[in-house]
């Protein structure tokens, strides 16, 4: 993210970021009202803390991701959006340290603040350096390193933001401490993985078809690789080997075994005899079996059993939808069209169900279920809330991808109804697209592979300074 275009503004806000980040070490949180053995006090959350949550959610959860996409497409709105986001992030930081009401013991949310703020500061500094356009002498070599680092940190920031949001929610409720830590990690890591899988499938569905063909691999090759690796980890971490088998150890371990066995098969079936990529159903079957296992997962509370059942059914539905998509909608093809710009409506079902199942699993920890049970909240209401959040996240992801695709490909948001379906308009490009397939492919490879595309640099007009890619 290049946040600033002018040196005074950029340097000033950089200094402010450094000052308030450094001040976090000196700030002392009051913990005099926290009972021994508890993580939070019994006080309610005050209005200042609620404002902190809302502002940080707006800055880090909406503005920064939007600004990242605007930077990738080199929009003139990139700098204003990121600047507003930075100002709000600073304001939200101070509000988080000025609140009253509920007190919190030493927690992971506050400890992670220096790390995520260091990422933001590094992006500011690197963005300012790139804006100076120092390309002569040693700066030419340094610039290449800075550009790559700028892109890596920029792409890592949404992940770090997600982690910090999770830490914030757990800290606010005082969850996932002591004996609850292990099952919390399992739920939030696995749930986040399902959400990430759904987002990645959406990216590949809408803007990644050219990149996928360039790799010479099918989607199932990459899916199966991750499934096999994850299965190996689960096989040896879900049970303390040498100790007694307790609770759901056996079910978790056998699920890990299925994953790596099926993953190896999926890798093998992802190529034809001539080496060409081949679609297969193994990842979909793994998702289906995992959902079946989770739907019958025994729990201590009735509401927990029902939420796990809905989670399992949702995951099973995602697996079935993927099977139908590959076998009957696409008929083993990668996409309905060459560039994947007009997917079948059924293809949105699998990634959405994966996102929904991720939220359901993240929301099914022991402490959350106990809290809902004590509050007499039904599982139906709770599931509806989690599905609502899933709809909003999926909407935001699709909006960002639409923003990228429309501007990066320079294609109109609405097609011209006066043009025949497969004829070329006067500009010589079919279906109203202002760039040929070559440019579309370059744009997608730029998004999925790196910061700078050589083809993109070659097409820039002579005499204009080369602009760094933002992330």
TrEMBL record:
<keyword id="KW-0732">Signal</keyword>
<dbReference type="InterPro" id="IPR018827">
    <property type="entry name" value="YTP1_C"/>
</dbReference>
<feature type="region of interest" description="Disordered">
    <location>
        <begin position="415"/>
        <end position="471"/>
    </location>
</feature>
<feature type="transmembrane region" description="Helical">
    <location>
        <begin position="310"/>
        <end position="330"/>
    </location>
</feature>
<feature type="transmembrane region" description="Helical">
    <location>
        <begin position="220"/>
        <end position="237"/>
    </location>
</feature>
<feature type="transmembrane region" description="Helical">
    <location>
        <begin position="185"/>
        <end position="208"/>
    </location>
</feature>
<dbReference type="Pfam" id="PF10348">
    <property type="entry name" value="DUF2427"/>
</dbReference>
<feature type="domain" description="DUF2427">
    <location>
        <begin position="33"/>
        <end position="133"/>
    </location>
</feature>
<dbReference type="InterPro" id="IPR018825">
    <property type="entry name" value="DUF2427"/>
</dbReference>
<feature type="compositionally biased region" description="Basic and acidic residues">
    <location>
        <begin position="434"/>
        <end position="443"/>
    </location>
</feature>
<feature type="signal peptide">
    <location>
        <begin position="1"/>
        <end position="26"/>
    </location>
</feature>
<feature type="compositionally biased region" description="Acidic residues">
    <location>
        <begin position="444"/>
        <end position="459"/>
    </location>
</feature>
<keyword id="KW-0812">Transmembrane</keyword>
<feature type="transmembrane region" description="Helical">
    <location>
        <begin position="281"/>
        <end position="298"/>
    </location>
</feature>
<protein>
    <recommendedName>
        <fullName>Integral membrane protein-like protein</fullName>
    </recommendedName>
</protein>
<keyword id="KW-1133">Transmembrane helix</keyword>
<feature type="transmembrane region" description="Helical">
    <location>
        <begin position="115"/>
        <end position="132"/>
    </location>
</feature>
<feature type="transmembrane region" description="Helical">
    <location>
        <begin position="249"/>
        <end position="269"/>
    </location>
</feature>
<dbReference type="Pfam" id="PF10355">
    <property type="entry name" value="Ytp1"/>
</dbReference>
<feature type="transmembrane region" description="Helical">
    <location>
        <begin position="384"/>
        <end position="405"/>
    </location>
</feature>
<keyword id="KW-0472">Membrane</keyword>
<feature type="transmembrane region" description="Helical">
    <location>
        <begin position="50"/>
        <end position="70"/>
    </location>
</feature>
<feature type="domain" description="Protein YTP1-like C-terminal">
    <location>
        <begin position="161"/>
        <end position="404"/>
    </location>
</feature>
<feature type="transmembrane region" description="Helical">
    <location>
        <begin position="346"/>
        <end position="364"/>
    </location>
</feature>
<feature type="transmembrane region" description="Helical">
    <location>
        <begin position="152"/>
        <end position="173"/>
    </location>
</feature>
<feature type="transmembrane region" description="Helical">
    <location>
        <begin position="77"/>
        <end position="95"/>
    </location>
</feature>
């Amino acid at each position: 993210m290049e946040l600033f275009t002018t040196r005074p503004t950029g340097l000033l806000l950089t200094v402010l970021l450094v000052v308030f980040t450094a001040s976090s070490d000196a700030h002392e949180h009051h913990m005099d009202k926290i009972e021994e053995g508890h993580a939070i006090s019994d006080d309610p959350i005050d209005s200042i803390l609620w404002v902190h949550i809302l502002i940080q959610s707006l800055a880090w959860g909406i503005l920064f991701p939007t600004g990242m996409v605007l930077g990738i497409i080199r929009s003139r709105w990139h700098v204003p959006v990121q600047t507003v986001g930075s100002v709000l992030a600073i304001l939200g930081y101070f509000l988080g340290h000025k609140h009253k009401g509920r007190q919190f013991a030493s927690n992971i949310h506050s400890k992670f603040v220096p790390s995520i703020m260091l990422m933001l500061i590094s992006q500011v500094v690197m963005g300012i350096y790139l804006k100076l356009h120092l390309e002569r002498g040693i700066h030419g070599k340094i610039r290449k390193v800075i550009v790559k680092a700028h892109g890596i940190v920029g792409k890592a920031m949404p992940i770090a933001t997600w982690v910090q949001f999770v830490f914030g929610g757990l800290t606010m409720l005082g969850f996932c401490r002591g004996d609850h830590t292990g099952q919390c990690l399992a739920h939030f890591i696995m749930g986040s993985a399902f959400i990430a899988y759904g987002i990645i499938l959406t990216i590949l569905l809408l803007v990644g078809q050219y990149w996928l063909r360039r790799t010479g691999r099918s989607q199932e090759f990459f899916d199966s690789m991750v499934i096999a690796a994850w299965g190996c980890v689960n096989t040896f971490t879900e049970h303390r080997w040498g100790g007694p088998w307790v609770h759901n150890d056996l079910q978790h371990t056998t699920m890990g075994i299925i994953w790596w066995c099926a993953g190896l098969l999926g890798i093998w079936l992802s190529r034809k005899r001539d080496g060409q990529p081949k679609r297969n159903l193994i990842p979909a079957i793994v998702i289906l079996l995992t959902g079946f296992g989770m739907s019958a997962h025994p729990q201590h509370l009735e509401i927990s059993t029902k939420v796990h059942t809905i989670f399992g059914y949702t995951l099973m539905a995602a697996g079935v939808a993927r099977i139908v998509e590959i076998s009957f909608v696409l008929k083993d093809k990668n996409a309905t069209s060459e560039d994947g710009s007009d997917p079948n409506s059924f293809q949105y079902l699998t990634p959405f169900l994966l996102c929904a199942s991720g939220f359901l699993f993240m929301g099914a920890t022991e402490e959350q279920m106990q809290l809902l049970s004590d509050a007499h909240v039904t599982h139906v209401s709770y599931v509806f809330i989690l599905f609502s959040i899933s709809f909003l996240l999926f909407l935001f992801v699709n909006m960002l991808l639409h923003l990228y695709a429309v501007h990066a490909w320079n294609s109109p948001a609405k097609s011209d109804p006066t043009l025949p379906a497969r004829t070329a308009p006067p500009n010589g490009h079919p279906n109203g697209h202002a760039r040929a397939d070559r440019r579309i492919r370059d744009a997608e490879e730029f998004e999925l592979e790196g910061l700078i595309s050589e083809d993109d640099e070659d097409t820039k007009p002579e005499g204009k300074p080369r602009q760094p890619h933002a992330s």
